[in-house]
């Protein structure tokens, strides 16, 4: 019976229904006027969209188990590995850097706007480094391994990536004066939107969201980010506001004549949990072992993916620059 109880609790937790069930049991609906009460009704939206996405795929005969297999297995694995690590990381950073805050903020709309701009910058820093430092890419690549976009991809992460991300983002925000209550609200908004932008084509074929495509980072932008096409590689690092991508020249719109190819550039078995989870770590280890000298071994760890001590670099920047140069030459003919 305990097994069924644990399974029930896991399902309820994944669907985000715990708060609603507790609310109905107590019969006290006054909490709906509070942030926690509202959050209890928002949490189930992403799992609901995921279920609708799967149902539509089945109805229209586009459902393939392999599109969901590895992200689901990664989600299950991470439930046992990282569910408490991120909370501890956030708490640690708040306690460590709180006294070094350069400004003091209050819970007002204008400080919330300030806090969100700071959070987006912090997210950009974490996300940019995850693509530009090979050791960190080993943690992040699991999220890019799926070769189709759907809402379950949001749950596909190496178990150490969330703590690393939270240390970077929380540290920057706390140092910049974002107070913890406001930071938690921002995290909630950002987490919901960060899940939504992984919505698949079974629900939203054109994910540009009209006029919002110019203001926000839409699912269309994030599909570009997950693409391995040379034009799209290492772009759109933001999560909700695309301001920092525009500032740092990493912004890229989805082109109607360039079909998105999802996944990573390394040859891999897309149906293998082992390859999606540990493949990049194994490749890095092999390169470090083969590299001549301590300096080159260290450089393989800290340089971007695709860097080579021989000079035959195949980094995203080199690949994208070569593609853009080729396109310019083609257009000039």
Automatic annotation (TrEMBL):
Pfam families: FA_hydroxylase. Residues 113-250 form the Fatty acid hydroxylase domain. It is found in: Endomembrane system. One of its GO terms (molecular function) is iron ion binding. The chain crosses the membrane at residues 41-59, 80-102, 108-130, 183-200. It is a multi-pass membrane protein. Keywords: Lipid metabolism, Membrane, Oxidoreductase, Transmembrane, Transmembrane helix. The keyword Oxidoreductase applies. It comes from the Bacteria. GO terms for biological process: lipid biosynthetic process; membrane lipid metabolic process. Its main location: membrane. GO terms for cellular component: endomembrane system; membrane. This is Sterol desaturase/sphingolipid hydroxylase, fatty acid hydroxylase superfamily. The lineage of its organism: Bacteria, Pseudomonadati, Bacteroidota, Chitinophagia, Chitinophagales.
């Amino acid at each position: 019976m305990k097994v069924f109880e644990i399974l029930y609790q896991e399902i309820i937790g994944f669907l985000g229904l715990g708060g609603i069930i507790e609310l109905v049991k107590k019969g006290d609906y006054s909490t709906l006027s509070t942030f926690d009460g509202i959050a209890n009704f928002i949490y189930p939206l992403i799992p609901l969209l995921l279920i609708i996405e799967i149902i539509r795929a089945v109805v229209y005969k586009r459902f393939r188990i392999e599109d969901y297999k590895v992200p689901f297995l990664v989600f299950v694995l991470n439930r046992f590995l990282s569910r408490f690590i991120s909370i501890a990381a956030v708490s640690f950073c708040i306690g460590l850097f709180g006294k070094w805050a350069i400004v003091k903020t209050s819970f007002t709309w204008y400080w919330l706007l300030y806090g969100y701009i700071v959070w987006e910058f912090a997210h950009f820093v974490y996300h940019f480094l995850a693509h530009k430092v090979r050791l960190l890419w080993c943690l992040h690549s699991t999220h890019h391994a799926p070769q189709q976009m759907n809402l379950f991809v949001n749950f596909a992460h190496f178990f150490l990536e969330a703590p690393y991300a939270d240390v970077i983002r929380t540290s920057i925000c706390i140092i910049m004066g974002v107070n913890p209550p406001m930071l938690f609200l921002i995290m909630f908004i950002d987490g919901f939107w960060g899940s939504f932008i992984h919505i698949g084509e079974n629900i939203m074929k054109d994910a540009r969201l009209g006029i919002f495509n110019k203001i926000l980072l839409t699912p269309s932008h994030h599909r570009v980010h997950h693409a391995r096409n040379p034009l799209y590689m290492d772009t759109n690092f933001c999560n909700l506001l695309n301001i920092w991508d525009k500032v740092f020249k990493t912004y890229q719109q989805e082109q109607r004549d360039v079909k998105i190819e999802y996944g990573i550039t390394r040859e891999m078995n897309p149906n293998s949990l082992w390859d999606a989870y540990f493949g990049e770590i194994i490749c890095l280890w092999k390169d470090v072992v083969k590299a001549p000298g301590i300096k080159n071994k260290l450089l393989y760890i800290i340089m971007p993916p695709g860097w080579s001590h021989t000079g035959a670099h195949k980094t995203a920047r080199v690949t994208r620059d070569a593609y853009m140069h080729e396109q310019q030459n083609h257009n000039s003919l």
